[in-house]
Predict the structure.
Amino acid sequence: MAFAYPVLLELAGRRVVVVGEFAVEAGKAEGLLVAGAEVTVIAKGPEAALDRLAADPRVTVHRRGYRGPADLDGAVLCVAHAAEAGVRDTIAADARAAGVLVNVMDDVPNCDFAAPAIVRRGDLVIAVGTGGRAPALAGRVRAELGERFGPDWTELVEVVGRVRAATLPHLPDFEDRSRRWKAALDLDELERLIAAGQAEEAATRLRDRLLEGLGW
């Protein structure tokens, strides 16, 4: 199976390069900006998208084609598309020679990683991959997951994270903490209370179950 090992990369403040018009059209730059990356775009179009990206101080836009290894200087990752097989091969070879992770869209041999279909709800990220074999299927699964884990999950994750930070000093033992979390985490209750606008009540109930018997 291709791309069998999933990871989530930290790209905040790191340079990434997006090459090619189709990569721009597909929103690759925007997805990398959400991850906090500093994005260099190298493409001849589309004009409207390039204009919009150029207005973002985190983006550098070069309105031209790929010129060679210097375009990848300082980058940790490159997402590219080109109609010509020779250009795709060149970009991938240059990236690999420079130690830059590369994904040439729709060209599995020229990819070091797959870009999964993503459901993002705040800090919750659900990634769907099919080893590059069935992107349409990944998109369908993403849509179904997007319905299951709706916008309320942004606040749900925030509540759980806040409770974890507040209770961590009181639960220093890893095994005890793990056992308590397994017993205390009631997703049905959290979803119901947050949907009803009772986030503080949800946090209080979760915290009380976690610290039960400890005198807090």
The chain is about 45% helix and 15% strand. The CA atoms of residues 82 and 188 lie 46 Å apart. Strands lie at 15-19, 38-42, 59-62, 75-80, 101-104, 117-121, 124-128. The chain has a mean pLDDT of 95.
